[in-house]
């Protein structure tokens, strides 16, 4: 019995103290002597059937984090565990199996699908790679998945260029579901679509989650979408999580100064255009040489004594969320 | 002719019943059908609609920016500060662009010359249009960059476009657009590629400067929330037609046209988390063979027989019109029309 409880309680995805850096320049022996620090000590968990949104601006490390999680970007420090198993430590067949437990849907359905393959092959490709299925089985499976994402049977033999952006994204979703993954990573899945089509895809993803208990990690710059779509949210700045917790708490009543600025700038019907003082102009600092103390200090309107010390992610008094700012506590 | 001048006083741009098509081998793409847009002096006007609805073509046609010989105007007129742009030749148009109207596009990299320093590009534009000396032009450039919150204008003027971030480049272009004091600025999705914090700053900068100098602005966007924060009035386009227009708050708080209503309902912002969004079923019509009647009719939940045979015209009160057989004046006409 306890074993069963453990299975349920264990998060599908556990990331701890993950650091990803890329060589930015090399010395005469070809050894890297400076780095781009893309992800700087990220820890997060996603529970089965839940959804975590990662929000932040371009260059903050969201996509690198997603790639490290699915095993496309190597990391030197930290750990990624899927269903309790360490991805980077796994070898050979076990590693391939672990990778199949995660699937990703990209922003641009145009370039993420092989243009020469008919839809049924595209959808069943991950199963084909895994092996052990006859062509007829793959076709039958593709047909089921196509129906689940709202494609019609006659679509199965067509090529991807015959489809609109929204339909191509449906194909990408069906394909990602084909291996019954434990985790689906959605990297800006609707940003390239018109809003009316975006709504169709958002509805589809939420419906699939309700019906099949899918687990999502959503990467997005769209705060309104994350608020609508996710249970939990983590806000990233310069490769760190600066605030995380339940989406309604973090996005409804942000406590970290960066989250506050991000939300004040997000376009909205309900609020007027923010003043220049509220948004403050600033560029993301260079991530080759990380700042000392709080990473947000230079742009922060509340910066005061204490900010020159490194800031840890600390649990706030509401018990539900964490923030990386000594002033957020009060 | 007297009346035209009188009518256009106080008016920055008057597009009237503009229809335009792109001839292709497989037939003509009817990109614009009967589009009318008015922009008063010092007014900020938004055009919203989904990809391909004709937002860019409308303003590019009005300012002579469409590729010559590739399109056909099939009706209508355009008056820019009283001058008819549709009948101008290229040199007259060039004169108009820059003196009367400047356009800012989505991707600032394409609009800047990558091999010339920012300072020279700015002063060239200023000298061409303002007949200023080089030292005056440099001073104007410096002031306007500072006004765009560019920290060290002197340093930025010595840099090349690629050395600046996307947000900086876009601010340089806005500076360039304002530098010759045009009466009208057309901003075509100027912030779509930028982060929200940068976007908010840029919208503010455009708004502040336009208000201070009495410049009119046309702001084109697919993002209704952005338009709601910036614009005094807005036009909603669908498949090359204007379907609704009015004061921004009125249109957004009480949308009338079924398309505008659906467009607002499919946004997550006004819906409880995880609740189903109201997606618009189907797809936009093929502009080579648009449907008879109302172009929205194949996707419209309220369509009646009349919608399938006759196109609804914009109708309503001054400054607030809707093109739909099931609304306001359209409804009256529909009822009269159906009487024997
Ligand atoms: N040079 C051209 N040749 C042929 N068709 C064109 C040309 N330019 C635009 N079109 C067509 O005219 C229609 C209106 O296009 P337009 O670019 O104005 O749309 P838009 O509303 O600006 O869209 P977006 O939001 O994607 O910028 C579209 O069907 C488009 O494909
Ligand atoms: S005219 Fe008819 S089809 Fe068009 S929007 Fe109105 S009700 Fe719908
Ligand atoms: Mg456009």
UniProtKB/TrEMBL annotation, chain B:
Keywords: Amino-acid transport, ATP-binding, Cell membrane, Membrane, Nucleotide-binding, Transport. One of its GO terms (biological process) is peptide transport. GO terms for molecular function: ATP binding; ATP hydrolysis activity. Residues 13-264 form the ABC transporter domain. It holds the Pfam family oligo_HPY. SMART domains: AAA. The keyword Iron does not apply. The keyword Isomerase does not apply. Its main location: membrane. NCBIfam families: oligo_HPY. This is ABC transporter ATP-binding protein. The lineage of its organism: Bacteria, Pseudomonadati, Pseudomonadota, Alphaproteobacteria, Hyphomicrobiales.
């Amino acid at each position: 019995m306890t074993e069963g409880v453990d299975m349920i309680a264990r998060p599908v995805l556990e990331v701890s103290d993950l650091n990803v850096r890329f060589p930015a320049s090399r010395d005469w022996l070809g050894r890297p002597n400076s780095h781009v620090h893309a992800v700087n000590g990220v820890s997060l968990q996603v529970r089965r059937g839940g959804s975590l949104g990662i929000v932040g601006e371009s260059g903050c490390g969201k996509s690198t984090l997603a790639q490290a999680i699915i095993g496309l970007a190597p990391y030197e420090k930290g750990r990624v565990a899927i269903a309790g198993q360490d991805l980077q430590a796994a070898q050979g067949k076990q590693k391939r199996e672990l990778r199949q437990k995660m699937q990703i849907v990209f922003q641009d359905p145009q370039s993420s699908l092989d243009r020469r393959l008919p839809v049924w092959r595209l959808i069943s490709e991950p199963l084909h790679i895994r092996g052990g299925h006859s062509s007829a089985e793959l076709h039958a499976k593709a047909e089921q998945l196509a129906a689940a994402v709202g494609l019609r049977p006659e679509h199965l033999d067509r090529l991807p260029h015959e489809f609109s952006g929204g339909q191509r994204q449906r194909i990408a979703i069906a394909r990602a579901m084909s291996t019954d993954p434990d985790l689906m990573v959605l990297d800006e899945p609707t940003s390239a679509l018109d809003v009316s089509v975006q709504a169709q895809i958002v509805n589809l993803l939420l419906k699939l989650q309700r019906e099949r208990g899918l687990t999502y990690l959503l990467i997005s710059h769209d705060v309104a979408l994350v608020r609508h779509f996710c249970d939990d949210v983590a806000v990233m700045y310069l490769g760190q999580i600066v605030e995380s917790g339940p989406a309604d708490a973090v996005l409804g009543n942000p406590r970290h100064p960066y989250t506050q600025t991000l939300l004040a700038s997000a376009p909205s019907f309900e609020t007027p255009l923010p003043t220049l003082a509220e948004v403050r102009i600033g560029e993301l600092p260079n991530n080759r040489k990380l700042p000392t103390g709080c990473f947000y200090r230079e742009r922060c309107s509340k910066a005061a004594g204490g900010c020159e010390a490194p800031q840890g992610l600390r649990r706030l008094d509401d018990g539900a969320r964490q923030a990386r700012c000594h002033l957020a506590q009060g | 002719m007297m009346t035209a001048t009188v009518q256009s006083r106080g008016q920055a741009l008057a597009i009237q019943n503009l229809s335009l098509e792109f001839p292709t081998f497989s037939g003509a793409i009817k990109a614009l059908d009967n589009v009318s847009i008015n922009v008063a002096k010092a007014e900020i006007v938004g055009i919203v609609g989904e990809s391909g609805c004709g937002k860019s073509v409308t303003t590019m046609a009005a300012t002579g920016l469409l590729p010559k010989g590739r399109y056909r105007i099939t009706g209508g007129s355009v008056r820019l500060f009283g001058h008819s742009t549709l009948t101008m030749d290229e040199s007259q148009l060039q004169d108009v662009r820059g003196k009367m109207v400047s356009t800012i596009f989505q991707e600032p990299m394409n609009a800047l010359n990558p091999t010339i320093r920012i300072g020279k590009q700015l002063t060239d534009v200023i000298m061409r249009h303002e007949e200023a000396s080089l030292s005056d032009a440099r001073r104007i450039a410096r002031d306007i960059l500072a006004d765009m919150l560019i920290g060290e204008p002197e340093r930025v003027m010595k840099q090349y476009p690629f050395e600046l971030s996307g947000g900086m480049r876009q601010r340089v272009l806005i500076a360039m657009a304002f530098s010759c004091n045009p009466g009208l600025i057309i901003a075509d999705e100027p912030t779509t590629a930028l982060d929200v914090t940068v976007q908010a700053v840029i919208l503010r900068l455009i708004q502040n400067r336009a208000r201070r100098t009495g410049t009119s602005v046309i702001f084109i966007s697919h993002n209704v929330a952005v338009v709601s924060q910036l614009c005094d009035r807005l036009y909603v386009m669908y498949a090359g037609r204007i379907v609704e227009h009015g004061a921004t708050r009125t249109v957004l708080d009480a949308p009338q046209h079924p398309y505008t209503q659906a467009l607002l309902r499919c946004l997550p912002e006004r819906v409880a988390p995880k609740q189903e969004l109201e997606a618009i079923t189907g797809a936009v019509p093929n502009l080579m063979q648009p449907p008879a009647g109302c172009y929205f009719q194949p996707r419209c939940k309220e369509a009646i027989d009349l919608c399938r045979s006759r196109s609804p015209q914009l109708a309503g009160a001054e400054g607030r019109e809707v093109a739909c057989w099931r609304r306001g004046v359209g409804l009256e006409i529909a009822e009269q029309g159906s009487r024997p």
